[in-house]
Every structure is written in C-alpha cells, then in structure tokens.
Design goal:
With about 80 residues, the protein is α+β, with helices and mostly antiparallel strands. The protein has two helices and three strands, in the order E-H-E-E-H. The structure holds zinc ion.
C-alpha cells in the first residue's frame, strides 16, 4: 500500500454536511484503539461524532467494539481466576 502524504478527507457530517471533520484520537469508550479502528471523526461545525469512512453514525460500531472489549476483559478475568 502506498503511503499518502495528503491529509485524509472524511465524508461530510451526517448532521450539518460540513466537511471539516477531525480525527478523534481518544474516546472514553474505546481508548486510543477504538476510534482508530472505526475511523471515528468529529465534525468541526456541530460537534457530531461519526464514522469518517462511511459518513454515518458510529453507534453500532461503538456497541460492537464495547461488547468485544468487554468479552475480552471477562475472558482475561476468568483466565486469571483459574490460575
Ligand atoms: Zn456537523
């Protein structure tokens, strides 16, 4: 895959159609990995957070991400308590 120097452009905001979204590097639900995986961006106009790749709300992705990380934590806890 070729490295692009150009700043990535994101889909316009689903709420106000502005095209000045900025990448979110940290969120409460996903730490630093979650928003990177979901292309989580925040609109510079109205503050709506959404998926910069699809231009749609990230709620479904956030739910899946949270469920998967919760399952991982539970698995680790079970593995540790079994030792
Ligand atoms: Zn907006």
């Amino acid at each position: 895959m070729a490295t692009r120097k150009r700043a990535p452009t994101y889909k316009p905001c689903p709420s106000c159609r502005a095209e000045k979204a900025q990448k979110v590097s940290f969120t409460l639900w996903g730490g630093m990995l979650g928003p990177a995986m979901l292309t989580h961006v925040k609109c510079g106009g109205c503050g709506t957070a959404y998926n910069g790749k699809t231009g749609r709300s990230n709620t479904g992705g956030i739910l899946v991400y949270t469920a998967v990380s919760l399952a991982l934590v539970i698995a680790i806890v079970i593995a540790m308590s079994a030792m």
